[in-house]
Design brief:
188 residues; mainly beta; SH3 type barrels; six-stranded antiparallel barrel; six-stranded mixed beta sheet; 39% strand
């Protein structure tokens, strides 16, 4: 389970700056065990700067080694995930679930979750196209992990829009060049 991604090196002692992918900041607390590229690392020091964890990990004390980790996922085993409350789900639990409407029509499967800042959005691929469904109570009515389904209420505007047909073989250009003036026509 990914809880972070290495953004780059920080300082001269091999610390790494992370993008946090977890709602639990204690994942980066001193003594926490994290896996990077299949190797276990222990958090030796952590401080937050503008919402970003800066972490010193065991076995990494060189900025060059820290730079080489850029883009690597920071992970932990699923067995170490925090238990969640009722009606709470880990994002990875929702990927692949079948999405049906409240009337029983299947619209597709969840392929990803898109963070938007306000609320996450379920990206659902189906025969009609891609649905982008906000993960809010008015839309998501029930999540049944054991049954592998999500029941949704499709509000106006949430169904995929048909592709627009363009006259001709190419879509119109957004930028048009003015026609060449007679003075410019023969210049190299």
């Amino acid at each position: 389970m990914a809880v972070g991604r290495v953004l780059g090196a920080w300082g001269v002692h091999g610390a790494v700056r992370l993008e946090s992918l977890t709602d639990f900041p204690d994942r980066f607390a001193v003594g926490a065990r994290l896996w990077i590229d299949g190797e276990v690392r222990i958090v030796e020091h952590c401080h937050w700067r503008r919402g970003t964890p800066i972490v010193q990990l065991s076995g990494i004390d060189d900025p060059g080694v820290a730079r080489a980790l850029r883009g690597s996922l920071v992970e932990l085993p699923e067995a170490e995930l925090h238990p969640l409350g009722e009606d709470e789900y880990y994002q990875h639990d929702l990927i692949g679930l079948v999405v049906t409407t409240s009337s029983g029509a299947e619209i597709g499967r969840v392929v990803s979750l898109v963070p938007t800042g306000a609320n996450d959005v379920l990206a659902v691929e189906g025969e009609a196209g891609q649905y982008l469904l906000p993960l809010i109570e008015d839309v998501v009515r029930r999540v049944d992990l054991s049954g592998g389904t999500i029941v949704v209420e499709l509000l106006d505007g949430l169904a995929p829009q048909p592709a627009r047909a363009f006259a001709g073989t190419r879509p119109p250009s957004r930028r048009r060049r003015p026609p060449a003036s007679p003075k410019q026509a023969g210049n190299p």
